[in-house]
Structures are given as structure tokens and as C-alpha cells.
User: Which sequence fits this backbone?
């Protein structure tokens, strides 16, 4: 798995630290860290983009082609 470094400085760092401090105060059971907060933001953003790309792909395909790729609704529902 690849690892990336994100550098946050200045006003953005202060804002991040304040957000995390608020979360820690309001929901201490989450054990939130600056790094964890940023990771959640990035992963959430990427999941939305991937989901949107799949939705767009499916919307552009004719129903007959989707049925050939995925099967019928009944087959999908029953895991066949």
C-alpha cells in the first residue's frame, strides 16, 4: 500500500487542530487525531469520486448490456 505525506501549515493547521480538539472534547471515545481526521477526509472524498464514476458508468450503459454484465435483479438479489 502506498503512503503519502500531506503538509498542513499556517491557518489551515490551526483550523485542523481546533476541529480535532472540538471532536476530542465532544466525543472522547473516538480517540481522534489530526492525522486520523485528515485521513477520513481524504478517504471520504475518494470514495465519493469512485462511487460517482460508477454511477455515471452505469447510467451510460444500456439496460441489456448491464443485464449481460450483472444478471437480472433476481439473480443479483440471490447472489447468483
Assistant:
Amino acid at each position: 500500500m502506498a503512503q503519502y505525506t500531506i503538509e498542513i501549515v499556517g491557518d489551515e493547521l490551526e483550523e485542523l487542530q481546533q476541529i480535532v480538539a472540538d471532536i476530542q472534547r465532544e466525543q472522547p471515545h473516538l480517540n481522534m487525531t489530526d492525522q486520523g481526521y485528515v485521513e477520513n477526509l481524504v478517504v471520504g472524498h475518494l470514495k465519493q469520486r469512485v462511487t460517482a464514476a460508477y454511477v455515471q458508468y452505469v447510467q451510460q450503459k444500456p439496460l441489456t448490456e448491464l443485464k449481460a454484465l450483472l444478471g437480472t435483479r433476481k439473480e443479483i438479489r440471490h447472489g447468483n
